[in-house]
């Protein structure tokens, strides 16, 4: 069953608010096994709202309209729905009485304009709204279903999760569920991941495979549709296994896991404490680690040595050599292990730009020291200062994780 | 001129990411005087992308498509655009060479699939993309204009604000220019700023006044429309003066200035160096300071002392007292002045959550020490760990700025 979401509101078109309702409904519909091919945003104009309702009804089985059912003159969804489906607007005495009761109970006089919220397209069912004054609407039109819910997120959530979802499931007969498994990878470029999985991508329709790049990490999403969660998971399992076999240790986590949380868990498993020593990334690595609740169980602190002087005086980097070198990164890591009294240190030095520092802009060096070994790697990143620093801090977290689990030492 | 935004990506339909690009483009188009009646989201399916392109071209003058131009198999915007406009896909030797150069410069071998990004619909103009590997596209089709930009926000912003906006303005034959002046404030709540400027807000249509809250800072945007830049600026000048008179030292910067850049400039003006000492913010303050190009002229480093032990051993915080107190924040600031050998230190300690540390969650303490004086302030922030840490680092930067310019000492 194909369900389309239509958001009404000029404030969305003007970018004054982000369409979070669209994301919420998209995720919830997918979870419950409904297909979505399109979402549309339209402004507060009765003809244009009616036009998109018609377009959407022609290509989808059901339509969920959010917004445009408040009490003011620019709330036009009710009128547009009448125009699109050739219905009259009628008045609900019952809802008018409900509204009046609520205002009276609050000790206030109801403005006349609120009675607009007791109007509805003929033959529609009114869906009670405990959190607001506009009822939801449910309308059958030819063989299609139309729902209208308020644009206020908490009212929309309550109406969608309750009466709307219940009616959608009934209309769909037995509804399929959609289950996602996201494999998070680092270290292989997006295009290379696509090549390595090309035959799987082409051969798999259920589950399907998609690639999502975000910063330096590539996510591989495997999506299965089945009668229930267990059946969907067993469709996913062999494909997940095949993807993992191809990508190996580039897969560092699943679903909502982050490299920060995976690194901290790996350290906790070994009983090791963590510190950082940063130059060019200037606190970004520490800031990401300490964003994880409970990180204080493992993470102890950092020396940010932005100047050569501090690197030499507090971390004992060789004063006669450069500071953007692999040996300087290793010295920073070893020096900070001692200064901070920790088991593992990840250190970053480099030339983040805009002016080059010793080496060309984008040259970043990560050093990691653990009780087992230490190692450094030089990576060159394209882009501006912000991007170089962000990508370098991501690389530092990943290399530290590989060192802690012993995989970095295993590769040439 | 009516401009429609079309976002391509199944991840948007599934609600895995929110369509922030739609909001950004909506806001920017409105600022520049373009009308928008619709926005559409469509999944990664070539027939459906082509279908919505046709629908959009039938009702709008120009179309901006975001996303679907990466290197993988599910990036289908190029193919869909060919299908919708009856064009062939052709190959750009020049862009292929650009791609190859970039990979080679980074010391890596380009996977074959990246050459997909050198393909484009015949007769389209390629728009250079400094921040990524997919070029933007500009295509005239009958009397309509079609732009394609990447879905990655930073790449999209650069392409839209540059070549796309320039071509749109030329097509629209725009004669008026729109000039913005943004006054950035900190320390007065948004509703209070609104009250203080209410009469100006009501009296001003050109220039108009708008309030934008972002994190703890409130921006007052003054926008004038006129025949040229100079005329627009002289409309803005008296209103800016009036706003500054009302808001006083809460105004810390204009336009693209940030508290980080303003703080660094104030330090440079006094010839002072800067260090930081962070506990609960764990590197966020340092990360923000070092995001500014050239910050190394003033900023020297930080000790992140996430544990009590490090605070006591390296910063000489009193081991017999608590670490989430104003005296601990002052001791951290003074201790770091000595350890890092700098003139000014801003220190942050606190209880960021989710579990309380000595004090209730959200209690954050900023201490600043300069060659002139030192002072600490306790602030309680609502919200979760991420919000508390972000707002506290903003407060730390602002209080440090007020201390450096001598204003903090002047207030009770």
Task: Give the arrangement of secondary structure elements.
The structure is a homodimer of 412-residue chains.
Chain A: E1 3-8, H1 10-13, H2 20-31, E2 38-42, H3 46-59, E3 62-66, H4 77-85, E4 89-91, H5 93-105, E5 119-121, E6 125-127, E7 136-141, E8 144-149, H6 153-171, E9 177-186, H7 190-196, H8 198-203, E10 208-214, E11 217-226, H9 229-247, E12 251-254, H10 259-270, E13 274-278, H11 284-289, E14 299-305, H12 308-315, H13 326-340, E15 344-350, E16 363-369, E17 374-380, H14 385-404, H15 407-410
How would you describe the overall organization of this protein?
The structure is a homodimer of 412-residue chains. With 412 residues, chain A is an alpha/beta fold. In chain A, 41% of the residues lie in helices and 25% in strands. The first copy, chain A, contains 15 helices and 17 strands. In chain A, the strands form four sheets. In chain A, strands 2-1-3-8-7-6 form a six-stranded mixed β-sheet, sandwiched between helices. In chain A, strands 14-13-15-16-17 form a five-stranded mixed β-sheet, sandwiched between helices. Chain A is elongated and about 85 Å long. The model of chain A has no long low-confidence stretch (mean pLDDT 93). At the A-B interface, helix 2, strand 2, helix 3, helix 7 and helix 8 of A face helix 1, helix 2, strand 2, helix 3 and helix 11 of B. Strand 14 (299-305) of chain A pairs antiparallel with strand 14 of chain B.
